[in-house]
Amino acid sequence: MPSWVYIFDLIGTGVFALTGAIGARRYRMDPFGILVLAAVTAVGGGSIRDALMGATPVFWMLDINYLIVILITVLLSFPLLSRPAHLPKSTLLIADACGLALFTVIGTEKALVMGFSGMVAVIMGLVTGVGGGIIRDLLCRQVPLILRTEIYATASILGGICFSIGYISPLNDTLVLFIAMCGSLGLRLAAIRWQLSLPVFGLSSKR
Amino acid sequence: MPSWVYIFDLIGTGVFALTGAIGARRYRMDPFGILVLAAVTAVGGGSIRDALMGATPVFWMLDINYLIVILITVLLSFPLLSRPAHLPKSTLLIADACGLALFTVIGTEKALVMGFSGMVAVIMGLVTGVGGGIIRDLLCRQVPLILRTEIYATASILGGICFSIGYISPLNDTLVLFIAMCGSLGLRLAAIRWQLSLPVFGLSSKR
Amino acid sequence: MPSWVYIFDLIGTGVFALTGAIGARRYRMDPFGILVLAAVTAVGGGSIRDALMGATPVFWMLDINYLIVILITVLLSFPLLSRPAHLPKSTLLIADACGLALFTVIGTEKALVMGFSGMVAVIMGLVTGVGGGIIRDLLCRQVPLILRTEIYATASILGGICFSIGYISPLNDTLVLFIAMCGSLGLRLAAIRWQLSLPVFGLSSKR
């Protein structure tokens, strides 16, 4: 499994870096500003996870590949960013959903391997999955995706629970990884496509 | 004293979780979104404190009771959240004041027990007391309470200083805990009730 | 070199504390609120750096001088804050530029001394330089400086790269420190003065 986890982690890093770069478009930032926002989005969640678990120095300081993936992603995204007309409206949402699902299972797996309980592991998956996106949205002054009514935190928590249960099952770990990731991604994409939401609570008149 | 500190810590966790759930009302969030915001508010300050002090993994990863308290609080708050008319306007402010006072003395105590100086301990109390609320307000796009003119940081600093002085005094530790907490809470509630504030600095024309 | 690094670090702490206090002016905060915002701005970046590197407890918890510098800076800034007319518009920007340059080289140096690679050290310099300012701007609900088009992250990255290259060169370390800092500061001040920017990407119609 380790190699799959690692490859998924790098893919998720690239995907989240892309969402950071796209988020930067609203602000007409220069290349280095875009790089910073992409990097914060890509490694923010995992960095918070590692700092909370005491797994320091955090992951990307020990393995240069994460930074290289971010750098390449940002370089490749520049042509995309300068032709806004060619960027479908939902690109950011779908890319974010992929990153959310990937990082959720990665984060859950890392916490379980370090010996934390299933409940803590689900939360570490959630932190890894939503942390970077929350920082991106705060910096870009957007309403964080996690505060919107569509299923978001729920998709991450589902992925984490699936992986935690599968981890103690006799199933092959790689299979569990795929199932948990697909479950989380599928739920989030379905929520985006059909605007699904759980029952909501709150003031009906506001927003 | 340990048992009192622990019980107070759990009560403060529930109180801050409630303020997070109430803060979520403006956004018509689903149950899991509310749970995330409640949890971030409840354990955010203590997590920052522990990460800064190097006390990792942070407290709630080692003791499942904090998460259980948050879960129960959020479940119990759902009926309250769906009947907005029954929620007095000042509920959030008063609950936040209680959490502020409780977490301030808890944070100060933990830093003193770990051997830090009184000045650092007061700051750790402040971080514990205001950290979660600041994250909640940032996510909910409210002006953080700490930026308002009413006495807020001051109440936390007062509680931390009282506890730090009492800690090296011959007084009973539990008594010191109560006095510091009541001092902090009393000052903050008085500030809310009579809109007390210290002399303020700044541009008089703005806001 | 150590003594120079230390003196520069304390100067940077005071300068960033001043920008935090100035940022607080818009909110008519009381003295303790200003103190909190000044402290967060001054030690926020370095605290994130130390938490990421696992250098905990973070620097200011082990050396009381940082807190004393912040306290004195805030006390001295009160007369300035209460006479807004005497505060030139660009004061905040220039003070922030000085803090950015100072903290960038300090952060880069600390990471290199701890044995991290040049690429990680440049990022640690960036985190140290921009971290506190980002927190200040988020709390004050300003568009973070790093999201504006003028050269900002670029100035920090330039300083970090200069220092990292100079660090492995035969040049005197103090000289390298000055050169890297002046390069970073000069670029940022030039960008403020002549509104320089790198080519920007993004939607031309927004903002």
Oligomer: homotrimer
Order of helices and strands of chain A: HHHHHHHH
Q: Kindly state the mean pLDDT of chain A as a whole number?
A: 87
Q: Give the total of beta strands of chain A.
A: 0
Helix share bin of chain A? over 70%
Helix tally of chain A equals: 8
Overall outline of chain A: globular
Q: What does this protein structure show overall?
A:
Three copies of one chain form a homotrimer. By secondary structure, chain A is mainly α. Chain A has one domain (2-194). Chain A has helices spanning 2-23, 31-53, 59-62, 65-82, 91-113, 118-139, 153-167, 173-194. The longest helix of chain A has 23 residues, at 31-53. The first copy, chain A, is globular and about 50 Å long. The N and C termini of chain A lie far apart (45 Å). The model of chain A has no long low-confidence stretch (mean pLDDT 87). Chains A and B meet through helix 2, helix 6 and helix 7 of A and helix 2 and helix 4 of B.
Keywords for this entry:
72% helix; mainly alpha; globular; 207 residues; homotrimer; 8 helices
Question: What would you say about this model in short?
Answer:
3 copies of one chain form a homotrimer. By secondary structure, the first copy, chain A, is an all-alpha fold.
